[in-house]
Amino acid sequence: MNIALRIPGSLTDVILADLRRQHAFAYERVGFLLSKQTSVPSGLLLLGYKYMPIRDDQYIEDHTVGAKFDSSAIRDGMQAALSEGATALHVHLHDHVGRPHMSRTDIREMQALMPCFVNLCPERVHGALVFSVGAAVAKVWGTHLPAEGSPVSKITSVGSSIRFLGAA
Amino acid sequence: MVAEEQVREFMSLCPDAKQATEGGIDYVLLPLLKLPNGCNPNAVDCLLALGARDGYENRLFFAQIVASPQARNWKGQNIRILERNWFAYSWRVPNGLRPMEILIAHLQALR
Amino acid sequence: MNDRYSRQTFLGRDATQNLQAARVAIVGVGGGGSHIAQQLAYVGLGHMQLYDSDRVESSNLNRLVGATIEDAKLHELKVNVAQRMIRAVNPEVRIEIFPSQWQLAAAELREADVIVSCLDSYAARQDIESAARRFLIPVVDIGMDVHLVNEKPHITGQIILSIPGGPCMKCMGFLNDERLRQEAQHYGAAGERPQVIWSNGVLASVAVGIVVDVLTGWRSVPRRGEYLHYDGNSHELSRSPRLEYAPPTCIHFPLEEIGEPRL
User: Fold this and answer.
1) Is this complex scored with an ipTM above 0.90?
2) Looking at the domain assignment, is residue C112 inside a domain?
3) Which of C71, C208, C225, C241 could be stapled to C76 by a disulfide with Cβ–Cβ 3.0 to 4.6 Å?
4) What's the pLDDT score for residue B1?
5) Looking at the complex, does the CB of residue C104 fall below 8 Å from at least one CB of chain B?
6) Among A71, B102, A156, which Cα is nearest to C215's?
């Protein structure tokens, strides 16, 4: 199954601007990208439409990780996914040039978190999206997908030009 | 947006009536709307456009072409709205009527 | 070493890769669309979806790129003609043909990165743009017509780029109630939709330039869309002032109204 993600260019800019903001103690910022899931002949197409940054007060100070957030942040993401009929993608930034890779911590955290989203909204996939400078990588979890998650094969940001962030 | 009370009025005719907007035009979806006597099929999903499109002030779309006592020119075929394909005959109803009156005026064309 | 694209490296380091990864749907492979299909094959586009239910007639042979006398005799499908032509230019292009109205293969259209609309009615343009906006797909639209002005034929045309979030064809004033009303009442221009190859060629070539820019970003010029007028008598292309007066973001297709409608 092919899974593709399209994000409006203006929204990509908003997300990256937010992820680059300094936090008082967290090394990284995170948020949730809400997307509409639609079926296409080759698999699934996710259409990003709203970004929910994690609020400053929802971060937990923990210098062993880039960012840690409390349960209210997870609840907000889950609530939005449920009430808006959306796919939730946890988003953060690896601020380097070149294709990003999900770290072992990223994958471990998402394998723990995403089943909660899938259990709540089993008819849709949910996952994680990592940006770098000019590229991105994403993985999703879903009811009929492998437990280790499925890669998103194509990520594009659609503005006055199309930025191919994650190659097909 | 179609006013709540107008949607409720449609629901008295079609319990699953729902409103939607696309391209700045308001629509009312009327699932399995019962059509005038003599129509085949006698009930079909319909979509009422309550704004100008395709050169009409308002327009009634059907999920399929319907045979009716009064034959109509089904000029509009496979018109894509709200991710479905619709069919429509050529029939003009002026604006200024209540949405329910617009619907009834369109259905009159099939009698 | 394959130096096929060595003359277009100015498009950027990733341009060839992006073009090869991209999927473009050409809706209508008649006079305009056939040019576009040919040119996109030359620039190295990786994947094309071709939509057209029509068959070749002898009256198409003044302009249908790739069509032969034999195609007209056989009433060959236009999508087959286009596919044959693309394969001759670039056999690596992945081609999907849909010998039908696009509405009957709409699910596949969702997967396109760009839609090129070469349709011959305002109503049809309205619908395809509406569908494209739902799935965050830019549309490049072209069209030409011949009108009588003081009883003399005047060739005009347009090339429009409609970007999700940016002004749509209604915002730009290209699609409006008056035009749709006249079309519904069959008010026509001079003759039986006159079409000539050189005007189609101008419009198609500019459209391809826009498609390549959308897919590669080589010009690095941000824009909200594009609306170009073509005057086929004076051979001039000019930017329509309507784009300048269009709202900064689309008032007809808010970004929240994307994906399949929740009904």
Assistant:
1) yes
2) yes
3) C71
4) 82
5) yes
6) A156
Closest CA to A86 of A127, A55, A56: A127
Give the domain extent around C29: 8-245
Note the pLDDT tens digit of each residue in B50-91: 999 888 999 999 999 999 998 899 989 999 999 999 999 999
User: Can you give the pTM of this predicted structure?
Assistant: 0.95
C183: closest chain B residue by CA: B55
Indicate whether C121 belongs to any domain. yes
- What pLDDT does residue C189 have? 47
Phi and psi angles of residue A136, each rounded to the nearest 5 degrees, phi first:
-160, 160
Domain count for chain B: 1
Rounded Cα distance, C77 and C60, in Å = 12
The number of beta carbons lying within 10 Å of the beta carbon of residue A5 is 26
**A45: nearest CB among C14, C135, C165:** C135
Whole-angstrom CA distances from B15 to A102, A132, A135, A153, B18 are: 49, 50, 49, 42, 9
* pLDDT tier for residue C215 given thresholds of 50, 70 and 90: very high
User: A49-80, pLDDT tens digit by residue?
Assistant: 999 999 999 999 988 888 889 999 999 999 99
Domains of chain A: 2-166 (3.40.140)
Q: What is the pLDDT of residues C176-204, one digit of tens each?
A: 999 998 888 874 444 467 889 999 999 99
Interface test with chain B among C126, C249, C253, by most B beta carbons within 10 Å: C126
Task: Count structural domains, chain C.
Answer: 1
Q: Confirm whether C253 is domain-assigned.
A: no
pLDDT digit string (tens) for C110-124? Answer: 999 999 999 989 999
Q: Using CA atoms, how far apart are residues A32 and A54, in angstroms rounded to an integer?
A: 8
Q: Is B22 on the interface with C (CB under 8 A)?
A: yes
Task: Specify the CATH number for the domain of residue C115.
Answer: 3.40.50.720
Torsion region of C232: left, alpha or beta (phi above 0 gives left; psi -120 to 50 gives alpha): alpha
Q: Which domain holds residue B104?
A: 4-108
Q: Give the burial class of C254: count Cβ atoms within 10 A of its Cβ; 0-12 exposed, 13-18 middle, 19 or more buried.
A: middle
Report the candidate in C189, C166, C190, C170 with the shortest Cα–Cα distance to residue C178. C170
